[in-house]
């Protein structure tokens, strides 16, 4: 049974996460993967996400998959209660997930019922294929990525930052280009996609 919480900006919807877990998250451990942010100039959301997790009562255990030994990747992904993947460059993230084999471990953990929390790029890589975000992220940041096929843990395509600056125009371009080709699911920074077994929904935070 899949348990997934897919967001554009976790810090903006952390209260929804607490509601989603019925506060059972307090005291749980979370593998925190900031890899996607490494090739980005703007990365404030990494610290914001970490702080929001800690405010939810979670114990954050960082895992930088691009540099961590394989034993550490295996151990942290398997032992901690949740997996959290931050925003950043989706193509670089997918390249490193595939290169290290972390993609397969994450898929196995999600399939076994472990909670997965995605933020922006971390949400997009759950889709079948990430080519649709080439206008949003620089795919040349991942020169060793030979295929855009992704983790395929959901059968739709999250489009984060819908209506939000500075992504508003590029998101509209993605929707215009792909809306009649694939099943897009646009979410704003104050929305989250909720998957709990067979339950699917888009929740909106109170503002």
TrEMBL record:
<keyword id="KW-0645">Protease</keyword>
<dbReference type="Pfam" id="PF03575">
    <property type="entry name" value="Peptidase_S51"/>
</dbReference>
<keyword id="KW-0378">Hydrolase</keyword>
<comment type="similarity">
    <text>Belongs to the peptidase S51 family.</text>
</comment>
<dbReference type="InterPro" id="IPR005320">
    <property type="entry name" value="Peptidase_S51"/>
</dbReference>
<keyword id="KW-0720">Serine protease</keyword>
<dbReference type="InterPro" id="IPR029062">
    <property type="entry name" value="Class_I_gatase-like"/>
</dbReference>
<protein>
    <submittedName>
        <fullName>Peptidase S51</fullName>
    </submittedName>
</protein>
């Amino acid at each position: 049974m899949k348990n997934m919480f897919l967001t554009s900006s976790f810090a903006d919807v952390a209260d929804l996460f607490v509601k989603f877990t019925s506060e059972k998250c307090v005291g749980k451990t979370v593998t925190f993967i900031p890899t996607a942010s490494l090739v980005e100039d703007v990365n404030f959301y990494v610290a914001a996400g970490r702080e929001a997790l800690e405010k939810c009562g979670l114990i954050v255990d960082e895992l930088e998959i691009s540099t961590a030994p394989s034993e550490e990747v295996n151990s942290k992904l398997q032992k901690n209660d949740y997996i959290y993947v931050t925003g950043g460059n989706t193509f670089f993230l997918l390249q490193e997930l595939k290169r290290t084999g972390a993609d397969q471990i994450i898929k196995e953990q999600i399939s076994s019922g472990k909670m997965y929390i995605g933020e922006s790029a971390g949400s997009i890589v759950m889709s079948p294929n990430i080519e649709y975000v080439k206008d949003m992220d620089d795919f040349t940041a991942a020169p060793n990525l030979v295929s855009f096929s992704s983790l395929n843990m959901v059968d739709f395509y999250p489009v984060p930052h819908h209506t939000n600056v500075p992504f508003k125009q590029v998101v509209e371009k993605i929707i215009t280009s792909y809306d009649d080709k694939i099943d897009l699911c646009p979410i704003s920074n104050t929305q989250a996609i909720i998957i709990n077994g067979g339950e699917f929904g888009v929740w909106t935070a109170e503002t």
